[in-house]
């Protein structure tokens, strides 16, 4: 395989920028690492604010260190004061203190195009969000979200209802928007169906985003990649539904061309567009 071209062009006009506020994944498949790969794949310059350092691989998380909130704020200020951000994606925010800090900072800096990935549990089942932080996520961060991107277990946790079909997903979507989010897309990867159907709701209209279900264990970082792909689209000036459609297409192909790395859940192929196969 050989890279065809760089996603960036040398120009006096800078590329759009997106900032990821999330945890670091030492295996490179999820978190900050997946977000930066995704931004680059869309021709968007990515910056990062690390909220936690994890020791993990394709089989699970073996350690985690939360970054002090003052240093998280310093990272955001450093990026915004110099580079700015056309969109912001939030991922792993493990505590009440960090969720509050990030929400307050988004408001004080008037940051726009906020994509919230409510990371709660890692692919291997390890909890990444403290139990007492769920209500803070609901009340402080959701009302700032341009869109929130929960999977089925995350939507169940946020709403307290069981989701087993699209009707349940629609009820959860209504509840999440009523919590203050401008829009939500409840991902359907955990539902039993021949298709992976993600359900979007903006408070007025529903829209289904469909893709064929791909049978593979190599799906590490799918949620991170999907949310950062939406952020990349928004950073590039796309309207929200177009950004979602582009993200859905990108993630589907990145899963289809997945990388068989490690002994557990391998990563997606973030740069399939740049490769000759």
What does this entry look like structurally?
This protein is an alpha/beta fold. Helices cover 35% and strands 20% of the residues. The chain has helices at 31-41, 69-82, 96-108, 134-141, 152-159, 166-178, 222-235, 240-256, and strands at residues 17-25, 45-57, 60-66, 87-90, 114-116, 147-148, 184-186, 195-201, 206-212. Strand 2 (45-57) and strand 3 form a beta hairpin. It is globular and about 45 Å long.
CATH architecture of one domain: 3-Layer(aba) Sandwich
Major β-sheet strand ordering: 3-2-1-4-5-6
The end-to-end distance, rounded to whole angstroms, is 6 Å
How is the quaternary structure best described? single chain
Low-confidence stretches: none
Mean of pLDDT: 92
**CATH H-level superfamily of one domain:** Ribokinase
Reading off the top of the CATH hierarchy, the class of one domain is best stated as: Alpha Beta
Keywords:
35% helix, six-stranded mixed beta sheet, single chain, 277 residues, three-stranded antiparallel beta sheet, alpha/beta, globular, UDP-N-acetylmuramoyl-L-alanine:D-glutamate ligase
SSE topology sketch:
Elements: E1 17-25, H1 31-41, E2 45-57, E3 60-66, H2 69-82, E4 87-90, H3 96-108, E5 114-116, H4 134-141, E6 147-148, H5 152-159, H6 166-178, E7 184-186, E8 195-201, E9 206-212, H7 222-235, H8 240-256
Parallel strand pairs: 1-2, 1-4, 4-5, 5-6
Antiparallel strand pairs: 2-3, 7-8, 8-9
Helix pairs in contact: 1-7, 2-3, 3-4, 5-6, 7-8
